[in-house]
Design brief:
It is a single chain. The protein has helices at 4-22, 71-87, 120-124, and strands at 26-34, 37-45, 48-57, 94-105, 108-114. By secondary structure, it is of the alpha+beta class. The chain has a single domain, classed as Trna Endonuclease, Chain: A, domain 1 (3-Layer(aba) Sandwich). A five-stranded mixed beta sheet has the order 1-2-3-4-5. The protein is globular. The relative contact order is 0.18.
């Protein structure tokens, strides 16, 4: 049997995927992993690729979900996104980074979705250079 935090995380990702689909997004990839990091969900929102971090909490002991994305996590997400874009020859695509926070209490849940939460140049430590050629 998987550890409780893994079960909670998987349930949260399932809820987030359903939530994003309901908002009109198409799930392209789940759990993209590479040496640079990982991305929970990669979606398509019209013509934009959306790299999504999902954090799920079933207790307040570790803080609210939004506190989990720090500068280090942002940098890893950006690096993983760069790998994905390279592997799929998709550098021409518009992209953004979203965050979905799920709070599970008993059998009920709440979802918070923030769009465009990572400033890529800050995450990479590059204030004046573009991370994409467009």
């Amino acid at each position: 049997m998987p550890a409780q935090h893994l079960t909670t995380g998987q349930k949260g990702e399932d809820l987030a995927a359903a939530w994003l689909k309901e908002k009109g997004m198409r799930i392209v990839v789940r759990n993209f992993r590479c040496s640079g990091g990982e991305i929970d969900l990669i979606c398509q929102d019209q013509s934009t690729l959306v790299f999504v971090e999902v954090k799920t909490r079933s207790t307040a002991a570790y803080g609210v979900p939004g506190q989990a994305v720090d500068r280090s996590k942002a940098r890893k997400m950006v690096r993983a996104a760069m790998t994905y874009l390279t592997q799929h020859k998709a550098w021409h695509r518009a992209c953004r980074f979203d965050f979905v926070g799920i709070v599970l209490l008993n059998q009920e849940f709440t979802v918070e979705h923030w769009e465009d939460v990572i400033d890529v140049r800050k995450a990479l430590g590059r204030s004046n250079t573009s991370w994409q050629p467009w």
